[in-house]
Structure formats: C-alpha cells, structure tokens
Amino acid sequence: MPKDEAYWKRKLEELEIDMSSKTTQKSAIPNPTPASNPTSQPSEAPTLQGIYQQSRAWFETLPTPGKGAVILGGSILALSVVRTLVQVVTFSLSFGLFLVLAYGAYRFFSKANSDH
Fold first, then answer.
1. Global pTM?
2. Which of 43, 23, 46 is nearest to 35 (CA)?
3. pLDDT of residue 93
C-alpha cells in the first residue's frame, strides 16, 4: 500500500509541475485583448496579432529539426502560392491579348464584308 501511495504522490507532483510550467508559458504570451476593455472583440474571434503571437510561441517550443521542417514547409507553400499567382497573371494577360486579337479580327472581317 505505501508503494502505491508514493507512486500517486509522485505522479501528482509531476502533474502539478507540468501544469505550472504550462501556465507560466501561457502567461508569458501577452493577451491581445485586455479584459479591462469592454468593447474588445469576443474571445471567439482571435486577432491577427494574437494568432501571430500564439504561432510564434508554438514555434519557439519546437526542437531544431521541427523548426527546420516548419520553415521548409512554409517556404514550399509560399513558393507554391507565388507560382499560382504568376500563372493567374500570365493567363489573364494571355486571355486579354486573345480578346484584343479576336476583336481586331472581328472588326477587320466585318468591315471587309460590308465593303462587298
């Protein structure tokens, strides 16, 4: 019985240490919406600054290989977005040029038909 009791006491102490370290980490992140401001946004709608601070705090807790993986994944995602934007702009310019040429051809052939 004493062994079992000692085991649970040790587990309880570990849990208390874990919870106190988490509340210390949480209190290190400033609250983006102070409670003293009654007109602030509700907690259901986080601000961009709050999301950034939470993401930064999460990133800081990652081990070095995890940070590298997040940076690599973010870079790949950013390059993918840039590539997609370039493709949309290229398509828009190509389609616009096609419309201008089609309109020119229409005007040319409609004028040629009206002359005959």
1. 0.49
2. 43
3. 98
